[in-house]
Amino acid sequence: MFLGTHTPRLDEKGRLFLPAKYRERLAAGLVVTRGQERSLSIYPMDEFRKVAERMREAPQSSRAARDYIRVILSGASDEIPDKQGRFTIPANLRQYAGLDREVTVIGAGTHLEVWDSAAWNDYLAETEQTYADTAEEVVPGMF
Fold first, then answer.
1. What are the extents of the domains in the chain?
2. What distances in angstroms separate CA 101 from CA 12, 17, 26, 98, one per listed residue?
3. 18: Cβ contacts below 8 Å, ≥ 6 apart
4. How many CB atoms lie within 10 A of CB 34?
5. What is the mean pLDDT of the chain?
6. What is the pLDDT of residue 135?
7. What does the pLDDT look like over 89-103, one tens digit per residue?
8. Residue 38: half-sphere exposure toward Cβ, Cα within 13 Å
């Protein structure tokens, strides 16, 4: 499970140094793709296979499903981190997420999210109070 918040930097070649605690889980391969709110999602290869299988089960008659699948898969890039735990984030994905040098990597359970650090701080500032004020069940079984 991926947990926590880390602030590595992208190097001049657009490579991300994975936080040490995640390297072993991602060493065999990963998929990086577009995420929600202009972030990137990084999945271990085996987890992304599960995501892709769920996509295959989506009704092809649904335009929303087709659009979602197209956006996710057209931006997906399979990568294998090097021995230092770094991999290159493709330029189109760096542009999508507005990544320059300062990034924030957050654990999101089954995957990681990569955010431009300023965008993450803005997002967190906007949503923390809403989270604190939540008085109804948002996630089944929580609260």
1. 5-133
2. 8, 11, 22, 10
3. 8, 26, 81, 85, 86, 87, 105
4. 18
5. 93
6. 61
7. 999 999 999 999 999
8. 14
